[in-house]
Design a protein that fits this description.
Two copies of one chain form a homodimer. By secondary structure, chain A is mainly α. Helices cover 56% and strands 10% of the residues of chain A. Chain A binds a DNA duplex (30 and 30 nucleotides) through helix 4. Chains A, B: This is Transcriptional regulator.
DNA sequence: ATACTGGGTTACCTTATGGATACCAAAGGC
DNA sequence: GCCTTTGGTATCCATAAGGTAACCCAGTAT
């Protein structure tokens, strides 16, 4: 499998295909949130922490390093004290914004449907627990 | 926060907003793969295993139950022996196909760029390890 | 009688993820 | 001398995710 050619095209269903790893990365919960937060422009470490909220510095660092490694954002250190580090999407990273936005909008507008479905399902399950003894004792 | 209203709209950046959970689910690695595999029509359990590949029955069951609970697919049991169970996307599940397809296409066509970036990054890291002793012993 | 089938379940164990906490460096202010 | 600030690291620990292997059911085929 030639991963050096610039026009390599993958298949996410093949577990040995690197695009599956890529898909895993861009499907990662933290990564997707960070990318979307950076949509409007560069942010500092502490600003990211506040915007994405709750994430611990360790986790945020891991996510940022991974995204930097994958060429989706750049890390710029300013020689100041106290230090200042800006994170900014690369052009490649920016191309992810459209697909992620679609997914996000789906999520935000279909919450109710999914939560309602969960309630239904759980009620059905609760009822099933009470069903007559069709259930052989293991 | 009213999650009963049919037109509730969420915000994925709010860690307390249920849409964040939704986003986590539809960003889940296995879930996204399963949904895409079901794009072409209903499949049986064993067909799903073969197509998504490598996933163990336990994990596949978990993923399918979660997706069923969230109303993204239906599970139909045929009263046969040996049993036959079909999984099929609901209309709601089908609305996810478009956004997921975009993401998948992004992944499949940007693998090379990401892998190249990783190579660069790792080489820079390797070089950094050899840098002069600027590095205070902990 | 036994084996085979499909769609699981269960128990057990390992690994990955992520949270809490503490700490550090370097320059400037008090 | 000590505190403050920012952008992290280091360490430890708890939970979650996921893999392995064995087993189950019920009918049909051998």
């Amino acid at each position: 499998m030639d991963t050096k050619g610039a026009s390599f095209i993958g298949n996410v269903m093949d577990p040995d295909c690197p695009s599956r790893m890529v898909f895993a990365r861009i499907g990662d919960k933290w990564a997707t949130l960070v990318i979307q937060v950076l949509a409007e422009g560069p942010l500092r470490f502490s600003e990211l922490r506040q915007t994405v909220h709750v994430v611990t510095p360790k986790v945020l660092t891991q996510v940022l390093r991974a995204l930097e490694r994958d060429g989706l954002l750049t890390r710029t250190v300013f020689a100041q004290v106290p230090p200042r580090v800006d994170y900014e999407l690369t052009p490649l990273g920016r191309t992810l914004l459209e697909p992620l936005k679609a997914l996000r909008e789906w999520a935000e507008s279909n919450v109710s449907a999914m939560l309602a479905s969960r309630d239904d399902y759980d009620e059905r399950e609760d009822a099933a627990i009470l069903r007559p003894p069709g259930h052989p004792g293991r």
